[in-house]
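Worked problem 6 (solution included).
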Amino acid sequence: MVHSNSVVEHVGDWPRMEAFAGEIRRLAPAYYVQTPYYWFPVEPHFSSLFFHWRSEQARARLLLKRGYGFSAKSKDIGEAMRVLQHARLLDKAQFRFLFPDARYVDEKFAGLTKSLIAIRP
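Solution. The predicted structure is:
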């Protein structure tokens, strides 16, 4: 059994996400994977409304001005980019592609999908 809570969005770019998901599916006859949902209005890593829907460049400029959520104000553009690229939220199509053999559950808050869950019993 693999239990992964808010990890897949932190493993890196898309090829790394595919590799991570592939290892979960290969190693575990059963799994439970949860990740924050891209289309929920609050970005959980930066604790900010609509932050993640801005361009990467706009978000980097904002981090140069002040901190957001768990991230302090960035000292330079390099640091801002590393902070931004540390978490990449997924939408439903991406998540279902990564875990095609799962049953899916939407975790809701105030009627909106907050997190995506894939379960292979």
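Discussion: Residues 54-86 form one domain.
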